[in-house]
C-alpha cells in the first residue's frame, strides 16, 4: 500500500480537492490521509461539512491578522512535522496558496514526491495575483506530477522546462465539484437553503452575484468596487447578491460605502451548495475570484472579472468571461451593457466550459495510483 497525504487549508482548495480525495479513496493500493492547515478556518469547515470529509490531521493555524511571514513559517514547520510523523509516499497539494507552497517545500526537504493539482496557471505578473503567482511557481520545479487543468496551463509548464512526461491535462476539478454539488442541490431542497431568505427578498429582480477578496484589490480598488456595486444596485430592476468575504479589508470598506443601501443582499459567505444555487439564479456574475471564474461559464453565466490580468485566459478566449479591471466607471458600464443589450448578453451567456468535463478527479487518482504502483515495483530506488 502507498500512503498519499493530501494537504489543504482554504475554501477553494477544499472545493477543488474533495473530488480528488474521494477518487483517491476509491483506488485500491492507496491509503489516503488528509491534513488541513485551516488557513481559512470558517470557510474551510463549511466545505468539509458538505463534502462529508473529516480530516485526519488539523493544524488549525489560523490567527487573526497573521502576516504572510508568520503564516508561511508556521505552515512550513507544522507540515514538516506532519510529514515526519506520517511518512507519506506522496504529497498532494492544490493551486497556489501558502499551504500548497509550504506543503511542496516540506515534502521536497524530505525527498517525498509531490503531485500538484491545478498546475501551470500563470498570469505572468508576480504581483497579480499576489502572492499566489509566486506560490505556484515555487511548486512547479518541485512537483513530480503536474495536473494541468487545460492545455494552456500545460504549455506554460513546458515553457518552464518541466518534463513533458510529468504533465497530465485533466480538466479542472472545480467542475467535478460543481456537477456533484448541483446534482445534490437538485435532489435535496434542504441543501442550498441558506439562500432562501435572499430568494424571497430579491423576487422579480435581476440578480447580479458579486464576490471579491483578492489581496491586490485591497485599498483604493476595493473602494472603487464598492462604489460600483452601489450604483448598480440603485437600478430599479436589479438586486445585488453579495456574500462578503470575512477579511476585514473587504468588510470594513463595504460597511463604509454601502451602508444599508437597499437591494444589496450583503450576506455571510454561503456554504457551497447555496453558492452553487446563487450562481444558477444570477443573470451576471461580477468577481475577482479564480474558482468563480471557472464555475460561471460552466453554467452559462457571463462573468466580469475585476482584475487587470488573469491566469485563466480560457474563459476570456471562449467569450464567456471579460476582464473589466477595478475602475468604478468601467465596472458600471460593463454591467449596464450586459443588462441593456440583449445581443451583448447572449454573446457571453453560452454554457461553454473550457475548464473541464467533470472527470478530472478520476484521471488524477488513476495517474497517482499508476505512478505509485510503478514506484512500488521498482522500490527501493524510487525514494
Ligand atoms: N464560494 C462559496 N461561497 C461563497 C463564495 C464562494 O462556496 O460565498 C466558492 C465558489 O463557488 C468557488 C470558491 O468558493 O468554488 C472560490 O473561492 P475564493 O473566491 O475564496 O478563492 P479563489 O478561487 O479566488 O482562490
UniProtKB/TrEMBL annotation:
Its EC number is 5.1.3.14. GO terms for molecular function: UDP-N-acetylglucosamine 2-epimerase activity. The keyword Isomerase applies. The keyword Membrane does not apply. Signal peptide: none annotated. It catalyses: UDP-N-acetyl-alpha-D-glucosamine = UDP-N-acetyl-alpha-D-mannosamine. Pfam families: Epimerase_2 (PF02350). Residues 22-368 form the UDP-N-acetylglucosamine 2-epimerase domain. Keywords: Isomerase. Belongs to the UDP-N-acetylglucosamine 2-epimerase family. This is UDP-N-acetylglucosamine 2-epimerase (non-hydrolyzing). It comes from Sphingomonas aerolata.
